[in-house]
Amino acid sequence: MLLTVDVGNTQIALGMFDGSELIGHWRVSTDPTATYDEIRLQLTGILGVDGFTQEDVGGLAVSSVVPAITATIRRVAPSVVAGPIVVVEPGTRTGMAIEIDNPREVGADRIVNSVAAREKYGSPVVVVDFGTSTNFDVVGTSGAYLGGAIAPGLEIGTNALIAGTAALRRVEFTAPRSVVGKGTVEAIQSGAIFGHAGLVDGIMDRICHEIAGTDAGDVTRVATGGLASTIVPHCRSVDTIDPYLTLEGLRIIYNLNQDHE
């Protein structure tokens, strides 16, 4: 079986695959200061609770935007995994051409998402990933990665609003009764939820028009990330939610690298 680990700035998503089937998935908070022992105990504990042992894990695939945790997972991996380790980074085979100014600077998670989206939905395809930031990643008609956009995530934007004001407070991320809030809480919720949905629709429309012109309707638009189910119901420009897209991409890239060994 294959363990996939996607380390984000806020959360770490993990998935266990038996062949192409996702048989287990978990989310934990990201702590860049976590020690070797803490991460080892966290990984073994998560797997152990669901009955997996080191002998069950025949490989590990990792994407990370937190270098400190990447380095620690590399050290921890031999005590958790009985097989090869693939860390997605510059030089890792992905099967995808990267057509941006500096291919080495693009985040591993963005490439992983794009590889999975092309494999599952064809091209052209746009992925919007709702995480700490809201990332848009574009795969063109040729199947190459063309770049994208990065916007402040829902939580970051709302937290900045609360921190910068004296009277506003944190709210639950649910849609209010109406876009016209009848109180401060509903007004904040309206701006957060409907405002972020509008951001997604606006950027998605521009991207699709730029890469497809009058045939923008031919572009598949996929959402993933922890907050996708909160925002997408209020968007008009997203075709589907694929919550495990990143984990699927890690599986695809892991297998590609094994095939070339």
Helix-strand layout with pairing:
Elements: E1 2-7, E2 11-18, E3 21-29, H1 36-49, E4 59-64, H2 67-76, E5 85-87, H3 108-121, E6 125-130, E7 133-139, E8 145-152, H4 154-163, H5 184-212, E9 220-224, H6 228-231, E10 240-241, H7 245-259
Parallel strand pairs: 1-4, 4-5, 6-9, 9-10
Antiparallel strand pairs: 1-2, 2-3, 6-7, 7-8
Q: How would you describe this protein?
A:
This protein is α/β, with parallel strands linked by helices. It is globular. The chain has two domains: 86 residues, 2-Layer Sandwich (Nucleotidyltransferase, domain 5), CATH 3.30.420; 146 residues, Nucleotidyltransferase, domain 5, CATH 3.30.420.
Describe the structure concisely for a colleague:
The protein has 261 residues and is of the alpha/beta class. 37% of the residues lie in helices and 23% in strands. The longest helix has 29 residues, at 184-212.
Name some characteristics of this structure.
2 domains, Nucleotidyltransferase, domain 5, alpha/beta, 5-stranded mixed beta sheet, globular, 261 residues
